[in-house]
Specification:
By secondary structure, this protein is mainly alpha-helical. The radius of gyration is 20 Å and the shape is elongated. The two termini are 22 Å apart.
Length: 176
Amino acid sequence: MSHTTSSPKVNVPLADFLDKIVLSAGKVFAWAYVVLMAVIIVQVVLRYGFNHGLVVLEELQWHLYAVGVMFGISYAQVTNSHIRVDLFHARLSRRAQHLWEIFGILFLMFPFIYVVFDSSLPFVYDSWRINESSASPTGLPYRWIIKSVIPLSFGLLFLAGLSRLMRDVVGLIKGE
């Protein structure tokens, strides 16, 4: 998998290892979209072909989409395929780009990850504790599984951010 960064990727073995974890997880969770498409097709056929949609399939669609998006964020961070404003970034010197990236990771990304991760733990714990399920009698059981995606995916996003931070610090030090 090639990275789409605007500059050469700085070689940092620990960052490479973290990237492999994130990329591997991303490739696994990307299959959620394949399953999602199949579930949507089945639901459409049932609803419009047989006039009988299933709540469980509708909820499964939401869950599969959430899994793909939540774990896809860290994949996008590692591959630098996320949406960003490069108009100003591209005009900066390499040193200024590294400093800007480091600032963004330390003062924007990591605090955001911490707030979401920390806030999600009691939310997930309560769901596990009561063995939460769908409010619909015919909906999905084990709602705690999908809620557990929040801290897990933000933990993976932290690894992606840490990898990026290491690369930018090394790039700043080496002048790359």
